[in-house]
Specification:
A hairpin with a 3-residue loop joins strand 4 and strand 5 (300-307). The protein contains nine helices and seven strands. It starts with a helix and ends with a strand. The chain is α+β, with helices and mostly antiparallel strands and 377 residues long. The chain has a five-stranded mixed beta sheet with strand order 2-4-5-7-6. It has a two-stranded antiparallel sheet with strand order 1-3. The longest helix has 53 residues, at 60-112. The chain binds adenosine-5'-diphosphate. Adenosine-5'-diphosphate is lined by residues 275, 279-280, 283, 307, 309-310, 312, 320, 325-328, 332, 337-343, 367.
């Protein structure tokens, strides 16, 4: 019995009403017992004086015991009525409070089983300030379920994407190795180089994935320091100039006015710029030009990376920052791209309170990537 009470909110409510009733009746009965005899005697004495002979046949004790019986009867009726009311009120409160909690418990366990589509019905179309605590709890519950649902589908998508990205280089490596083992492929520097490039792609993919998961989870701390915007740009040029010369693409630096001092995490911002200038090289044919343009716009700094390359068709522009997105899958693949670079770059720029956007007039019109980030006051 005690166990049942402990585990049912409805029973707990009912028994708490019962305790209130019992205490109320007990207090009333004790008060009646202690206070009434004296008051009754006093009243009876004054009645006797007024009514004289009329009351001569009745004894005080008889009157008092009939009076007490009447009071006790009334108390019994009142207790029974209160008891019935307690049952009705408990059932009503159970329906209003306990039933929604039960529904919430059932939905929670279904979510725990992985059914993230689960939602609770919100009674009526109530405004936020018209909702009681239970309705507000149901709204929060639904928000939590929606977030879990979204996280779960992102997780599933990520696993699918990663598996897809890993499959191609792995099967190339496996195919080449099998060919070498069976003697179908003759060992040559070219074959080894091919295998090496695929392994290198796998390694870059894993490194990028690690970084993406860290930046998406917010598990990093920016090491901010003050440096000249020009030095940041020069650092990237120094690292990529050789590859530009090799491919025969011109790399130019321009400054619109004096360039400001910026407060950034040099490694991360350098990496963003390296990614943009590296992509520009990858998607610009020999003979083309890539320009890095720095600008001081008062409250923020701007860096544009403009190329005269293959451009990005308008309809693909909004997607280039999406994880694993590549405009031309086969072309980017041959260049070793994983489609994560721009996703990470956008995260890093946003971590600095800035924005990164892509523009292009369309295929073969070249592309421009623009980084804006706030300047220290
Ligand atoms: P990847 O590692 O494949 O280069 P990114 O996230 O850096 O991945 O870029 C995503 C896609 O955006 C590229 O595969 C390419 O299709 C497109 N892209 C990026 N930069 C340029 C550019 N400068 N010119 C044309 N297309 C670009």
């Amino acid at each position: 019995m005690l166990k049942a009470i402990r585990s049912h909110l409805g029973l707990k409510l009912f028994f708490s009403y019962l305790v209130v009733i019992v205490v109320g009746v007990a207090v009333l009965a004790t008060t009646v017992e202690m206070a009434i005899p004296r008051s009754f005697d006093r009243h009876l004495a004054s009645m006797g004086r007024i009514m004289g002979d009329m009351m001569s046949g009745m004894s005080g004790a008889d009157l008092f015991s009939s009076y007490r019986a009447a009071v006790n009867e009334s108390l019994m009726v009142a207790a029974a009525a209160a008891f019935a009311a307690a049952i009705v009120v408990s059932i009503f409160v159970s329906r209003r409070v306990v039933a929604p909690i039960h529904r919430m418990m059932a939905a929670t366990s279904r979510i725990a089983e992985g059914r993230y589509r689960e939602r609770l019905a919100i009674p009526g179309k109530l405004q936020a300030d018209e909702m009681d605590e239970l309705a507000q709890l149901a709204v929060s519950f639904n928000q939590m379920a929606a977030k879990l649902d979204q996280t779960e589908s992102m997780r599933r998508e990520l696993i699918g994407d990663v598996a897809h990205e890993l499959r191609t280089p792995l099967s190339t490596i496996k195919g080449s190795m099998e060919g070498l083992i069976d003697g179908v492929v003759q060992p040559s520097l070219e074959v080894y180089h091919h295998i090496y490039l695929e392994a290198d792609r796998l390694q870059r993919l894993v490194t990028n994935l690690q970084e993406l998961s860290r930046v998406e989870a917010g598990a990093y701390r920016l090491e901010l320091k003050t440096i000249g915007l020009e030095d940041l740009i020069d650092g990237v040029i120094a690292r990529l100039q050789g590859q530009y010369d090799e491919k025969g693409v011109r790399l130019e630096k321009e400054a619109e006015g004096p360039l400001p001092q910026v407060v950034v995490d040099e490694d991360r911002m350098g990496q963003v710029l390296l990614n943009l200038v590296g992509n520009a090289l990858q998607f610009t044919p020999a003979g083309g030009t890539v320009r890095i343009i720095g600008e001081d716009l008062g409250d923020h700094a701007r860096i544009r990376v403009e190329d005269t390359g293959i451009g990005i068709p308008r309809e693909y522009l909004p997607h280039v920052f999406t994880r694993f997105y590549r405009v031309e899958k086969s072309r980017a693949r041959s260049g070793g791209g994983s489609g994560i670079g721009l996703t990470i770059a956008k995260h890093w720029v946003e971590a600095h309170g800035g924005s990164l956007r892509a523009d292009s007039p369309g295929a073969n019109g070249g592309s421009t990537f623009t980084i804006d980030f706030p300047l220290p006051r």
